[in-house]
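Example record used in the benchmark description.
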Amino acid sequence: MAPFAIGIAAPYEQLPYKELYAIAVNEAGFRGIWAANALCKIDLNYDTLFNRADALRDSGLITLAYNEMKKAYSLANKNPNCTAELIKLCAMVSDFSLGNQLIKELSGSIAVDEYLANSIAHLQK
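Model output (structure tokens):
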């Protein structure tokens, strides 16, 4: 994916919020990222940052997704879903320090799927 295309929102800036949200949540690649960026331009908040991080991850841009998810986490007010997703990204980028802090925070507050369990095991090596 071309670096210049990651930070833009065109051609989606004129679409209605609900349509942008559907694209951001359901599409990978440029479409998902552009829609997520447009949402962040409209209203930068936990939900839009989380969706942008998710769109970046779905497009294979793991380090960028990790950085965006950390921003979402800072606004998440201990949302266990955000914590779980950030743990998964910590495992992908091998951030053992933050990952293990988050594991302690998460303990018992959310059901652990296989992907999360594998991420926790990796971080606790």
